[in-house]
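Batch 3, record 17
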Amino acid sequence: MTDIAHATIVMERNYAASPARVFAAWADVDARKRWSAPADGIRIEYEAAEFREGGRDISRCIEAGNADYVAVVHYLDIRQDARIVFAEDVSHGDRRVSAALISVELSPVGARTRLLLTMQIASFDGAGMESGYQFGWNAALDNLAKEFNA
Amino acid sequence: MTSTTHASFIIERRYQHAPKRVFAAWSDPQAKRAWFVEGEGWDIRSYEMDFHEGGEEKSSFRFVKGEETFGEETLFSNDTVFNEIIANERIIFTYSMARNGARFSISLASVEFSAEGQGTRLVFTEHAAFFDGADGVHMREAGWQELLLKLGDHLDKQGFGQ
Amino acid sequence: MTKRATTHATFVIERTLKHPPAKVFAAYADLTQKAKWFGGPPEWTRSTHTLDFRVGGRESESGGPHDGPEHTMNALYWDIVQNERIVMSYEMLLGPTRISVSLGTTEFKPAPEGTTLTYTEQGVFLDGFDDAGGRERGTHELLDQLVACLNS
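Prediction for the assembled complex:
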C-alpha cells in the first residue's frame, strides 16, 4: 500500500507580544523546547538545531511507553519577525509516517501579533498523523502564549 | 455563463395523527419510501436512507414519460444529507436534484412538527437555488404539496392506532 | 428543555471587486488563501481550519474568543462551477449547540471593473441563538476582509 492521505490545516492565534518576541520564541531552541511539548509527560530533545535558511533540526518527541517520534525539519525560508517556512518529516520507530510543508506567518495587530500556521501534510498512516498534527500544534500554540505572560 | 435563481416557500399542513406517528413516517425507511418515493409514473431504481444527523438518503427514479417529455430516457436523482434531527419535533436536511446526472437545484429544507389537539401541525419550509432556469420554484412547491398529501394518505391508511 | 423555534431568512450581498473572477474564485478554493480572510475577529484563536474543495467535500473551521465558547462552522460543498459558482450548506455551532443551518451560493460574474460577486444566504436560525441580521453583518465583515486580502 502506498496510499497517501493529504490534508491542509490552518490554525491562528493572537499573542500579547510583538512579532519580534514571537519570532524569537521560534528562533530560540530553548524556548521552543518549553512550548512545543504538547502535554505533560512528553518532552522534546534536540539532536540538531540550526535555525537558518538551509539549516536542519532533528528533534525527538519522547513519551514513556511509546516509541519516539523523530522530526527532521529543513528551513526553507526565514524572514526576520515575519515568516518561517519549513519542510518536516516525521518517523515513528523505523517508519516514516508523514511529510509536511509548514509555514508560520506573523503580522502585527496593534501591539499584538497574529500568527497564522498553515500545514500541508502528506500522511502515510491514514488519518493518524492529521489528528496528531491537530492535537500537537493546537497544544503547542496554546503553550506559546504562556511565553508572553508577564 | 451559469445562472442561478433563489426562492423559498412554506407549506403548512394538519394531520389527524400525533407528532410521534407523523415523525415516524419520515424516520422509518419503509414508511418514507411508501409516500416519498413510490408513485405512479415513476420507476424506482434505487432507494436508501440512513436516518441520523450526518446520514444520507439517496434515491434515483426513472420518469416513465421521459421520452415523450424530454425526448430521452430520463433519470432523476435526489441526494440528501440530514443536518439536524430532533425526534418528533424537527428535521433539517439539504438535498440536490439532478436530471441524467446534471444537478439542477440545491435546497435546504426544514420540517417542524407540533402537537395540535390530537393531531399534528406540520410546517415545511424550503429554500432553494435553481440552476439555469430548470425546475423552478412553482414546480418544486407543487411537488411538495403533492408529497405532503401522499404523506396524509399514507398515515390514514395506517389507521389511527398507536 | 429548549423551546424549539426557527426563523427563516434570506439575504443577498453584492460586491464589485477589482480582480478577475479566476483570482476571486481562487480565494475560496484554496485553503491557504481562504484562511487569510475567512475567520473570526483578529483577536480570536482558530483551533482548526480544513477544506476539501470538491463536490461532496467538507470544510471545517473552529475558533473563538480567548475565554469564550468555541464557534464551529461545518460546511458541505454541493455544486462547484470553476470561476463561476459555489453552492455549499453549512451549520454553525456555539459550543455544542447548533444555532443555524444555511445554504450559501456565491456567484462570480465578470464585470468591467473585474468581478461582481453575489452571495446569497438562505438560512434557518434555530431556537433564538442567532439571527439573520447578525449573520448578514458578519458576512459583510468577511467580505471586507476578502477585499483587503485581494488588494494587499
